[in-house]
Amino acid sequence: MQKYQLSFAKVNVLNEHIAEVIVGQDVVISLEMSEEYDDFLTNIFSNNFALLINKINQYDFSFEAKVSMASHDNLAAIAVVTYDNESKTSVGKISAIRERDGWNLKVFDGLNLGWQEGLDWLQGELNSEALNN
């Protein structure tokens, strides 16, 4: 596993197609941070990839970041692991804003083995994506 530190988050590259993202506590992700993140992902992944967002910390997004983040053509799936209702609600609101983008997103409960379930789901989504290409 390769570990990277962005200005606002840790990124653990779990394998050649999946990265875990852990945003810092109380961060407000700006458009600039979102661009840093997108540039990082572009440099790490050249083919289809998936993200495991581990919402262990509380954080938020500026409106500009909400409408621009996770816009990669090669982003096949996003699993979000949440640990409380507030985080689940937050994910739902952002997903609603980005509904037109057709994100392949699923939320998992971190208190009930959600991290592993999310990782397994991402692997399945990437495998089905590979079969469809």
Automatic annotation (TrEMBL):
Protein name stated in the entry: Uncharacterized protein
Originating organism: Colwellia demingiae
Lineage, uppermost ranks: Bacteria, Pseudomonadati, Pseudomonadota, Gammaproteobacteria, Alteromonadales
